Amino acid sequence: MSNATLTIAPPGTWSLDPVHSRVDFEVSYLAGRFKGEFHEIGAELAVEGERASLEGSARVASVDVRDENLSAHLQSPDFFDAERHPELRFAAEQIRLDGDGRLSVAGELTIKGVTKPVAVTGTVSAPIADPYGNERIGLSLSTTIDRREFGLDWNNPLPSGEPSLANEVTILAELQFVRPGAETSE
Asked: Which residues of 31-43 are buried (b: 16+ CB within 10 A; e: fewer)?
């Protein structure tokens, strides 16, 4: 029961620092790993007593894979369908601290209008005071999903008949959260 009393951060509402945060994905494609990033992200962490909840989103139109044509393809109905589903969403009502800063998060991920439960793991940094009078923590989170469960079925077969794009996608989030400290300096 000792782990049940651990909290991930002091109580309060923590806001995402989007400049020092990122949400990436990676998937096996052709002969290696293919990576991308969502530039426009938002999140809020609420800590109340021993409970912590997290809500976050990423704007599909902000996907960046370093190629304009491919970014456009990812926004098309073949993949995220940005016009009909402009955001990816994540929500977790319970974040469990397993000790040594390790987190277990049972949440729900919504992609392309489909919501599925996901198990997310990661770490949390100890709270620090930043140079601007705020408290700050960092969450490093990851999960692996089967993209087909969210309606992302597109593929391009190789000459061998094998698919060129894997179905397992890893989502990685490096998030810094901030809340005003006891003394505000601005």
From this structure: eeeeebbbeebeb
